[in-house]
UniProtKB/TrEMBL annotation:
Protein name stated in the entry: (+)-abscisic acid 8'-hydroxylase
Protein residues bound to heme: 417
Reactions it catalyzes: 2-cis-(+)-abscisate + reduced [NADPH--hemoprotein reductase] + O2 = (+)-8'-hydroxyabscisate + oxidized [NADPH--hemoprotein reductase] + H2O + H(+)
Subcellular location: Membrane
């Protein structure tokens, strides 16, 4: 018995010693790496006040100039590591994406829906992303061109007919919403569409408001509207199932999907992803088209060059009597470069949030588990090393493809926006009909940028539109 006891003690001692050595080794491993340089600001609030008391881009650029391309801060209640180089963005979003997860405030997840694909990673995310990508692939969206043209022309006609100035960004949001509805549901019954739009507007209004359940607040109203949206979408889904319609739109893809276990998506999963797609499609697309109009307005010579390119297509289509084709939208090199440069200059998605799921080492620095990680797309897009004279609007810089990972207007990696081709198609179609049939002028003297949260021209670019006489279109 004594021998057995001694052996047990020896085994226990050795196992304890090995455990201590392992911990010590791990400790030494992580002690080799230090946190990135930077400031964590005041207790609790960090540097949130500094961020929101100025243009956020100035905040990030000042930090980068002082600390370099990787630095730490504390904003919105979270310790963060900021990354301002193409290599670092690729590290987080592509090559080592498994070490990071998407992260959003719970208040926003509650409004969009917890099953929306951009809240997830792994198998579920991959399956849903493929579904959305297939729904928005070129071979699918090219069939939507006649309907998108109808929406664009109707919108422009209504602006011109009003004879008054409009908030360009707000009107572009409505246009992008209509295109989003088209891509998800195809042609929808008017009653359903009006109910969807009414309640979606309330959710949209409350999305960036202070999250509180106090009755009457924008957030509480948004929560109630989101519940109504669930019921409305439930009715639409049930109707589609009862009619056994095999539509090729996004809803059709969702309804026909089965995973490897022959499991279908639940109605709640479908509803959350519909709302998610609408959110992803609306503000970003509306923002970039608004910026395109501003940049063209501010450069008459560029506007005339774009108009000449579009008039050649207009004339080919018998004075605009024939609809645009997919091939024609692929043959607008200057207009396409204008859209690309607008995406770079405005950098609608200035950064993205990730969270380290383990302790991560990058270039000798430690990114602790649980810390937020933010690749700064705007800093990269405005880096003179990659884009000379970055504050100048110069579409010619896209005559040559940008260096890899220096231009990421739709993100990068498995969480990049799957609807980027639809967004660009929508912009090209609207520009075509705008410059060939209309004129516009900005009616506000205010310059600068406002954030809500996406960057848009001040006051949403108030502008007046009018129909151009036929004899002036040549």
């Amino acid at each position: 018995m004594e021998i057995v006891s001694i052996l047990l003690y020896i085994i226990l001692f050795l196992s304890t010693l090995l455990s201590l050595l392992k911990k010590q080794k791990n400790g030494i491993h992580f002690k080799k790496f230090k946190l990135p340089p930077g400031s964590m600001g005041w207790p609790y609030v960090g540097e949130t006040l500094q961020l929101y008391s100025q243009d956020p881009n100035i905040f990030f650029l000042t930090k980068q100039k002082r600390y370099g391309e990787i630095f730490k801060t504390h904003i919105l209640g979270c310790p963060c590591v900021m990354l301002a180089s193409p290599e670092a963005a690729r590290f987080v979003l592509v090559t080592h994406a498994h070490l990071f997860k998407p992260t959003y405030p719970k208040s926003k997840e509650r409004l969009i829906g917890p099953h929306a694909l951009f809240f997830h990673r792994g198998g579920y995310h991959a399956r849903l992303r493929r579904l959305v990508q297939n729904s928005l692939a070129p071979q699918t969206i090219k069939k939507l061109i006649p309907d998108i043209q109808g929406i664009a022309v109707s919108t422009l006609e209504s602006w011109a007919a009003s004879g008054q100035g409009v908030n360009t960004f707000y009107e572009m949001k409505k246009l992008s919403f209509d295109v989003g509805i088209l891509s998800i549901f195809g042609h929808m019954e008017r009653g359903f569409r009006e109910m969807l739009e009414e309640n979606y507007r309330k959710v949209d209004k409350g999305y960036n408001s202070f999250p509180t359940n106090i009755p009457g607040t924008a957030y509480q109203q948004a929560i109630l509207a989101r519940k109504r949206l669930n019921r409305i979408l439930g009715e639409i889904i049930s109707s589609r199932k009862e009619k056994r319609l095999l539509e090729k739109d996004m809803l059709g893809h969702f309804l026909s999907f089965k995973d490897e276990n022959d499991e279908k998506l639940s109605d709640e999963q479908i509803a959350d992803n519909i709302i998610g797609v609408l959110f992803a499609a609306q503000d970003t697309t509306a923002s970039v088209i608004t910026w395109v109009l501003k940049f063209l307005h501010d450069d008459p010579q560029l506007l005339e060059a774009v108009k000449a390119e579009q008039m050649a297509i207009y004339d080919t289509n018998n004075g605009g009597k024939m609809p645009l084709t997919w091939e024609q939208t692929r043959s607008m090199p200057l207009t396409h470069r204008v859209v690309m440069e607008s995406l770079r200059m405005a950098s609608i998605i200035s950064f993205t949030f990730r969270e380290a799921v383990v302790d991560v080492e990058y270039k000798g620095y430690l990114i602790p588990k649980g810390w937020k990680v933010m690749p700064l797309f705007r800093n990269i897009h405005h880096n003179p090393e990659f884009f000379p004279n970055p504050q100048e609007f110069d579409p010619s810089r896209f005559e040559v493809a940008p260096r890899a990972n220096t231009f990421m207007p739709f993100g990068n990696g498995v969480h990049a926006c799957p609807g980027n081709e639809l967004a660009k198609l929508e912009a090209l179609i609207l520009i075509h009909h705008l410059v060939t049939n209309f004129r516009w002028e900005v009616v506000s003297s205010e310059s600068g940028i406002q954030y809500g949260p996406f960057p848009v021209p001040q006051q949403g670019l108030p502008a007046r539109f009018w129909k151009e006489p036929k004899q002036s279109r040549q």
